[in-house]
Amino acid sequence: MKITFPHLGDAYIAVRLLCNEMNVDCIVPPLNTMETLERGSRYSPEEICLPFKLMAGNLMEGIENGADTVVMVSSNGPCRLGEYGELLKSVLDKNGYHADWILLDTVQAIGIRELLKRAGLVWGGKKRSKLKLLGALKGVYKVIHSLERMEKEIHFRCGYEIERGRLKAILYKCKKDICHSDSINDALKIIENYSDKVKEIPLDREKNPVKVVLTGEIFSLIEPFGNQYLEDKLMDMGVSFSKRITIGWWIDTTFVQPLKRARMMSKKNGFLNYCIGGYAKDTVEEVIEAKKNHYDGVIQLLPLGCMPEIVVKSIMPDMAEELDIKILTVVFDEMNGEAGYITRIEAFIDMLQRRKQHVLYGY
Amino acid sequence: MFFFLYIIGLVGIKSISTVLNAENVRIKEAVSIKIGIPGGLLYHRYATFINTFINELDIECIFSIETNREILDMGVNSCVNEACLPMKIFHGHAVFLKNQCDLLWIPRIMKCKNSESICPKFCGLPEMVMSGTKRKEGVIDYPLYMDRKREVRHYLKKLSENLGCNENKALRAFKKAVISYGQAEKGIWDKEYPFIIFLAGHPYNIYDKFANMNLIDKLHSYGIGVITEEQVFDNNKEEEIKHLMKRPYWLFYKNNYGAGKYLVRNQKINGIVYISSFSCGIDSITIEMLKNDIGDFPFLILKIDEHTGEAGMNTRIEAFADMLERRRIH
User: Fold this and answer.
1) Which one, out of A91, A163, B99, B240, has a CA that is 20 to 30 A from the CA of A273?
2) Is residue B163 classed as helix, strand or coil in its secondary structure?
3) Are A169 and A223 members of one domain?
4) What's the ipTM?
5) What is the pTM of this model?
6) Which residues, in sequence order, are bridge partners of residue A243?
7) Is any Cβ of chain B less than 8 angstroms from the Cβ of A124?
8) Are residues A51 and A197 both part of a single domain?
């Protein structure tokens, strides 16, 4: 049995390490490119959101490379993600990409026993040591978190860099090296090495760069192709930014501390008091947090037609007015005319820069 | 003696105070609150229910008019531009009522009968309307979980507090409304036409004559009768969705997919017409699933948005009618 899975940012690094450790055959589909998107959108319904099209492309490539089982996560919210598995199966079957499906649903939908049974199917019926599995899971968790910690550090330091582009180069080199490493321990060592290198890069502490929060729909934030490599562009512009919603955050809120999230969801924040599915409420809270932490602006990302984020977008003008923070909403779809996005983001950053320097006109 | 006087005094004070209180209460009730009910979205389906409920409560109420060009324009101007047509129409109705009522009733439907949901936009509807119409006060916006009895009672309690009427009265009115909704005729099933098609879609697209440009009458004029999903029993729908990997959690996905497959399998219809609003998240999945599962069967998808070009729609309906005719001959 060979498993494959759709891409979600850097998740493939962790999944590959986990599968290596547990001796599971796993085929990582090629990274998202324009070709993936074209293949995916050829067979997908017209009005589905962008993540679906990319995932369909990934799975087609994965199955072509010899995989016979697809592992997907699912949700139970009113957002479309929960129905992805069903529709992907239907679309792929229709076009001749047959595979077995393992749908890892939420505990609320199918119960913990069924979830564990399904997760057990991933091992292909062979008996494996549970201790080893727990160790591997812990290791992978550590890898994800330390990689993200480094990434966050880089995102923050970008604005203070003297020689622009060095931090970005380090990040890419680190990810490349992890992809070639064989075991979790190797990966951890690599990350540690590169983290030290990050600290050695000279910074100009006198600078006062624009600080921005990236928020919005979870897939667009995590998958670089889904947001047209927005993070790279911000790094090139010398903007210091932060992004709370990452894979590590998702794992924490979904599996490690579900109660904490439930408590957070029941809190009222004055703008959107109820959990309406997807990560809409988190987006609203991000904006409030951004104001508290003295950020200059917020960029909200969403794929076209994302239902929960549309609600948030309609509240955004109110929030911008009441909190006195600038918000830019960028909508992504499969038409990737890059120039349009770059112009808007550059204009937004310029506006924030001017606001910072107390220019009294023009914003 | 003094003791008696004391008692009489006490009783007197008490009676006076009760009389005063009663007057207070009467004054409270006399201040009638005018409630505004926008005629968009699910109002089309639950009109009987809402009318009975309001009648029984005996409160002053103002309904918006039927959707027209003006309402649509108001909605488009006040709504976020990524939203779908029914949302924009609902915003239009809300703007229409904005200055005419004390309380604007915007249902926030979180969960339906069997804990299905409708769409995230329904859960965030009050926020969307409040920010779009700039009316922040006097909006009934508490969540409605219809899968739990306690939550419904809680909703009624809050509602009666806001409307200034008795809680038991609200409960009685609710029960009567449920009964009258149960007795009312739901859905359409035309039997006197040579062809019959399954008209699928959300109720607010099917029954809003302005939004769908009088689709049902147009179909009738080509000799095509209509059956809607309300006419298919729930257990038949349940039967059809059993083979799915995951139980659908959207009410209208379940209804349209289940009913469509049931009608096709039992050969009760000649074709399916799916009326869907542009960028509807639920329909994007329902249509594809239905299309993949019914195989070779006449299936027409009509997309509607705020651009009301009628000619394109007429041509497509005509072509569909011709196709049904040819299928019968050959």
Assistant:
1) B99
2) helix
3) no
4) 0.85
5) 0.86
6) A214
7) no
8) no
